[in-house]
Amino acid sequence: MFLNHILHLVVAFVLTVLIGKFLIPELKKLKARQVEREEGPESHKKKTGTPTMGGIMFLLTFAALTIPEAGKYRAAIPVIVATLGFGAVGLIDDYIKVVMKRNLGLRAWQKLVLQIVVSAAVIWSVKQFTEVNFDVLIPFSSLFTANGAGLYVNLGVFTVPFLIFVFLGTTNGSNFTDGLDGLLSSVTIVIALFIAHISSALAVNITSASYVMAGALLGFLFYNHHPAKVFMGDTGSLALGGFTAACMLVMKMPIHIVFVGIIYLVEVISVIIQVLYFKATHGKRFFKMAPIHHHFELMGWSETKVVNIFTIVTVVGCFIAIILM
Fold first, then answer.
1. Computed over its alpha carbons, how large is the radius of gyration of the chain?
2. Nearest-angstrom CA–CA distance, 315 and 312
3. Any bridge partners for residue 33, and if so which?
4. Which of 128, 186, 189, 235 could form a disulfide with 311 if both were Cys (CB 3.0 to 4.6 A apart)?
């Protein structure tokens, strides 16, 4: 079985690389190009013109390799719905911004409504297609039970609001993380491999889908490592947040995203702190720039160093999540 999963990873890698060979020139023809913010780091100005919406390449791979097996691995259906659903929201936003040249893309309320709709669809698909209930594993609880088993709780009427909050937080966290060459790809490869390991141990049938995602992201990283030849755009970043949240939901571990997706969380918190501090002090900044990966850049860290450190932090967070189980 393990060799079969590794085969999924390798096939996903190769397929994504092949798709990229054809997709990147098409994105250039569409003039789907990144426009860097004027207030962004000076070193990013040279990235203007790099094709974006590249998340399409790993989403095509993910869809091609997981949808045919959805009948066999029904727990993967909510993961597929989340990944492709949030990817579609990102694709609409990207298309409006970079192809139709409307800089703001979807309005904030439009994006929020669409994200809530997709979140609700994922929750419905869990109920409709799987035998997974919505009990939530409490971190550290195994330390305080007589048999060492984790404690699961049902949130009752708060379940749906809580899960929608998890999806919104995770997708926006992954979106903020996508700001450096290879950063979100590298961090989420680690998360996908963590999910593959834990889902296998728990006998939750999303292991194959997780290996596919890891392989597809490795294929995307072939083009996205520094200096990037393509960016994933909101198409990819929202999809990866949806993938992560849905997998953790199916494994009954949404709270553990705090550890597994520690970089997503830190990126979101850095933006919130920056905005609140800016307003409270009438124009002063807590960080040199937010999200926080830009702060480290302006402190003199290279993009590669930030990506490496953030990836290592994710590895540590995943190990902590394993220990907490």
1. 19
2. 5
3. 51
4. 186
Q: Which tokens belong to 181?
A: 């060459």
Residue 35, pLDDT > 60, answer no
- What distance in Å separates the CA atoms of residue 221 and residue 124, rounded to the nearest whole number? 33
Q: For the whole model, what pTM was predicted?
A: 0.93
Beta strands in 99-250 (DSSP E): 136-137, 152-153
* DSSP assigned state of 149: P
For residue range 58-96, what is the model confidence (pLDDT) as tens digits?
A: 999 999 999 999 988 899 999 999 999 999 999 999 989
Residue with tokens 């579609």: 88
Give the CA distances from residue 204 to residues 41, 159, 198, 200, in Å, rounded to whole numbers and listed in that order.
43, 21, 8, 6
Residue 254 CB coordination number (10 Å): 24
Location of structure tokens 């979106």 = 175
* CA nearest neighbour of 140 among 251, 241, 258: 258
Question: 265-316, pLDDT tens digit by residue?
Answer: 999 999 999 999 999 998 889 989 989 999 999 999 999 999 999 999 999 9
Give backbone dihedrals phi and psi of 64, rounded to 5 degrees, phi first: -65, -35
